[in-house]
Amino acid sequence: MDPTPRFLLAHPSHFIALGFGAGLSPVAPGTFGTLLGWALYPLLAWSLSEPMLFVMLVVFFAGGVLASERAGRALGVADHGAIVWDEMVAIWLVLALAPPTLVWQAVAVVLFRFFDIVKPPPVRNVEAAFKGGFGVMIDDIVAAGYALLVLAILVRIFA
């Protein structure tokens, strides 16, 4: 089943799992979800203290597990491509730890998308090992870890 705007609005968990509609993009919904996450990140960063931001990311992750589980069941595919909340939470984590400049944030976004698409070990292993909403969310967090590792090396070299 391909989600429609009607599906998006049918339940709050669908709205969240589909990244407020970014997941309805006919091409590259994961990239659109990531880009929406990047666009929304300043709202989080400016309105929350750093400790509260990380607490909210944990809450968003847990909520994403539930929302993705429900949306995946309704779509008939546990990790449907339209589910992009996982990309949004992961990019918020990466951006929270990236240097706060537009250039470094752009590098962080590109690195995250690269590792989320390529899924080097153990990202693919994690994706295969965990099912349901937790499986949808956790592989993106592992991909975020790769992005942060490479970003830290690049910052050390170029900053």
From TrEMBL:
It catalyses: a 1,2-diacyl-sn-glycero-3-phospho-(1'-sn-glycero-3'-phosphate) + H2O = a 1,2-diacyl-sn-glycero-3-phospho-(1'-sn-glycerol) + phosphate. It is a multi-pass membrane protein. Pathway: Phospholipid metabolism; phosphatidylglycerol biosynthesis; phosphatidylglycerol from CDP-diacylglycerol: step 2/2. Keywords: Cell inner membrane, Cell membrane, Hydrolase, Lipid degradation, Lipid metabolism, Magnesium, Membrane, Metal-binding, Phospholipid degradation, Phospholipid metabolism, Transmembrane, Transmembrane helix. Lipid phosphatase which dephosphorylates phosphatidylglycerophosphate (PGP) to phosphatidylglycerol (PG). Residues 16-154 form the YutG/PgpA domain. It holds the Pfam family PgpA. Its main location: membrane. This is Phosphatidylglycerophosphatase A. It is found in: Cell inner membrane. One of its GO terms (biological process) is phosphatidylglycerol biosynthetic process. InterPro entries: PgpA, PgpA-like_sf, YutG/PgpA. Its cofactor is Mg(2+). It comes from the Bacteria. Its EC number is 3.1.3.27. The chain crosses the membrane at residues 15-40, 52-68, 89-114, 134-158. GO terms for molecular function: metal ion binding; phosphatidylglycerophosphatase activity. GO terms for cellular component: plasma membrane.
